[in-house]
Amino acid sequence: MNTLTTGPALPEKTRPMRGRPTFYRSYAQELSLFNTRPKQIWVGIILLVALLIPFSVSDPTLQTLAMAFAFGIGALGLNVVTGLAGQVSLGHAFFLGVGAYTASAISGDPEGRTIGLGITSMLVWLPAAGIAAALAGVIVAPLATRLRGLYLAIVTLGLVFIGEHIFREWSDLTGGAGVGREAATPELFGYHFNEDTSMFTEEQNLYLLLLVLLLVFALAARNIARSKIGRSFMAVRDRDMAAEMMAINLPRTKTLAFAISSFYAGCSGALIFMITGFFDPASFNLLLSVQFIAMVLIGGAGTVSGALMGALFISLLPTLTRELPNYLPFISSQVTDTPNIFQLQSILYGLLIVGFLLFEPRGLFGIWIRIRNYWKGWPFSY
What we know:
- It is a single chain.
- With 382 residues, the protein is mainly alpha-helical.
- The chain is built from 16 helices and four strands.
- The protein has helices at 3-6, 27-30, 37-52, 59-84, 92-107, 122-144, 149-169, 171-174, 202-225, 228-238, 240-245, 250-276, 286-299, 304-321, 341-359, 363-377; strands at residues 181-182, 187-188, 191-192, 278-279.
- It has a two-stranded antiparallel sheet.
- A hairpin with a 2-residue loop joins β2 (187-188) and β3.
C-alpha cells in the first residue's frame, strides 16, 4: 500500500528545516512575524544592545539617538504610503506639523499666550496628534485616487506650502513666525520624562521612552505589511488596474494608506519636538519632507528594517558632518560663510538619494541582503 497517499498524515512543521532557514513548509509560517531562527537571534541581540546603550554613552549621543527613533516612526509612516502602497508623497512635513501642533495645544498651558488645554498625559495628546494628522490625510486622500506619479507628487508638495502659510498666520495656535511655542510635555502617570530622576537622567528617560514607542510602531507596521491590508497595498503598488480586477477597492485602499501614514507622521511630529522642547512654523518646510524621503529611499522602500536603518543614518548624518571642518578647513561651521556644513547636508541628501536609486535601489537593506547572501553562499559564487 502506498503510504504516501493512504498513510497517517504527518504533523505540519512549525519551523524551517535545519540548515535551510528560508525553506518554509506552510504559507502561515512564511508570513509569521519572525519566521527564521536567525531573525529571532538578531532581533534579540539588537534589543539587548539598545537596552545597554543608555548606560554606556554620553547624554548628547542619547538625545541624538532618541531623535533618530522619533524620525524612525515618521519614516515608517511614509514607508506605508510610498513603499507599500506606491503613492508618492512629498507632503510629509505638513502631517508632522499637524501632529506637533495638536499635541502642543492639548498639552499647553491654558493661561499661556497660545492655545492650550493643560492635558499633559501622553495617553491623550499622542493618540490625538496621530488622529488629527490621519484626518488631514483622509481629506487629502481623494486626490490620490484620481492622480498618480508626478501629478500626485506635485499635489502633496503643495501641502507643504499650504501648511507653512497656515502655521505662520495662525499665531494663536503656533505662536507666529520667529516666535514659536513650547512642545508637548512628556508626562505619563505622573512621571515626567523630561526631568532628571534618582535613577535616570533626562536623556536616558527620553531614550528609553522613544525606544519603547519605536518598537510598538515598528511591530504595528510589520503586522500591517503581512496582513490582508498590507497585501492590498502591495497589489495597488505593483499594478493598480490588476488589483482592481481582483476586487480590491482602490479609493478605499489608497485612503487607508494615507490615513495610516499620516497617523504615524502626526505621532512622529509630536515626539520629535517633544525632545527639542520648542518649535516654530519654519520647522515644517520642504527640507523636512526631503529628509523623510531620503530615509525611505536610502534605507529601502517597502521594508520596515530599511525605514529604520534609513532614519538612523539620516539622523546621524548632521553629527558626522559637524566634524568635517576639523578635517576640511574650507568648509565652515558658520551659517554666514560659504560653503558651510548646513549647505553640505542639503547637498548630501540629494546625492545620496540619486546614488542609491542608481546603484542600489533597495537601499541599505539591499546592501545587507547582498552581504548576507554572500556569506551564506561562501565560498561559492552562486
